[in-house]
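Internal ticket #5521
Category: modeling
Description: The requester needs a full-assembly model to guide mutagenesis choices. All entity lines are attached below as received. Residue total reported by intake: 500.
Assigned to: D.W.
Attached entities:
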Amino acid sequence: MNDGKTRRTVVILGGGTAGWMAAAALGRFLLGPRWAVTLVESEAIGTIGVGEATIPQLQLFNRSLGIPEADFLRAVEGTYKLGIQFDGWGWRENRYFHPFGFLGLDLEGVLFSHHWLRWREEGGALDYPLFSTETQAAAQNRFGMPPPDPHLPALGYAYHLDAGLYAALLRRYAEDRGVVRIEGRVAAVERDVERGDLRALTLDDGRRVEGDFFIDCSGFHGVLIERALGSAWEDWSHWLPVDAAVTVRSGPLDPLPPYTRSVAYSAGWRWCIPLQNRTGNGLVYVSSLIDHDAAERLLLQEIDGEPLGEPQRIRFRTGLRRRQWLGNCVALGLSAGFIEPLESTAIYLIQVGIAKLLSYFPAADETADMADVYNREMAGVYEDVRDFVLAHWVVNRREEPLWRTVREVEPPASLAERLARFRARGEVLAGWEDLFKEQNWFTILTGQGLWPEHHHPVADRFTFEEIDQRMRALRAAIERRVAALPPHRAYLGRLLGKTA
Ligand SMILES: Cc1cc2nc3c(=O)[nH]c(=O)nc-3n(C[C@H](O)[C@H](O)[C@H](O)COP(=O)(O)OP(=O)(O)OC[C@H]3O[C@@H](n4cnc5c(N)ncnc54)[C@H](O)[C@@H]3O)c2cc1C
């Protein structure tokens, strides 16, 4: 693809979160004497604009770009996130917290959860959430950076952010590094007659934007990957049937929670995401079970405080594009696939796509081999996230029609296997490359009432007294650590130089 002499161009279509994340990363790692980067977007079409909760991996993305955390949080109205509180998922009165970071401390190569299960069977009296710094700090609306402690795991955290402000920050970053932005609406796509590759985009005022490699970040429009290249969309709505959302902003929360809330209802669920000066709210629902007006009324009735502005409605489809890389085009973001925002994974999936694209960026005209590797790996990443999100739905005892249906539909074989393993031995055998690890599965499955029949036999090699002593010492250390953390808003105020 690059003869080493001519300067080639990557054209990114779309200026939502995906487009500007790609532009910033390519501006940082690819743009130079051999490659130029151009981004085309249409303000008239606009962006989805939601996407306010993230997972810890975003720290790595910002770090790779060299954006300091305080600058980032200031620019995006950001707050810290220690995990997600789930209300009503397993059954109506059910509540549990899914934290980032580690649960307890593994001992002699055996997961903490096995030791804890065994300890509980023999009379240990403390619930496992007491062994998570993140869960305990969240319950007290505290946040801070605890000093390193060899006997405790490092704190796991992510951010809540304003997605529009994040795109604006990345746009400044990308343009400062030479990425060229073109405002305009793509009306037609030109393809190479022989190879079928993309050659140029024609805008509705007749301008032509030529490129050698294209990144489709046009969201659900799928302008290049679907409309021009015909790459098929695999529908996952029989497993994950929510297909619409209504969103509205409300005033800031005080005290400021360092966590996202997810509350289940008969026809869907509601998120609550606290930012510095406002709160993001949304109800995700099945449009055949509740109409848009009723969904909007439910959201407005349930949010804390007064709404700021008019509610917005969004339709979406859940699924995966198996061939996300086709010819000289890669899809990122909503044009590549979508899984509802229950575990805040969409921005992460964009990040993984960008990292893999940079790793496999074509060195020559022949891209088919790299495309196969990329598509296989990305499908695995999406399926892993899908299974974890779906597990929240499948493991429930609610009696409304939606909850009964999702429980009764046959899950993907990969999830069925994981659930069976968990029931039998308290672990799903998550792979090293999986986003969600054993502690994540343990927390959400037991949180929703699915308890394993056995713990790992190696956990039996300690005496009860030995384990009991370690459990109590660990609990006391976590308690001390959490008590030393300041309120979330005070910590942010100090970091950003604002009054708390
Ligand atoms: C209800 C909901 C809640 C979500 N919550 C979260 C969350 O909490 N955390 C998270 O990580 N993610 C979340 N997401 C996902 C997140 O919003 C998206 O991953 C993210 O916004 C990326 O979108 P995008 O950039 O792919 O597409 P979009 O934001 O739709 O951007 C598409 C871009 O393409 C341009 N475009 C389209 N067609 C043309 C054309 N013909 N010519 C020129 N330009 C064009 C548009 O102008 C726009 O700039 C959520 C998504 C939904 C639907």
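Resolution: model delivered.
Comment from assignee: DSSP finds 15 helices and 21 strands in the chain.
Ticket closed.
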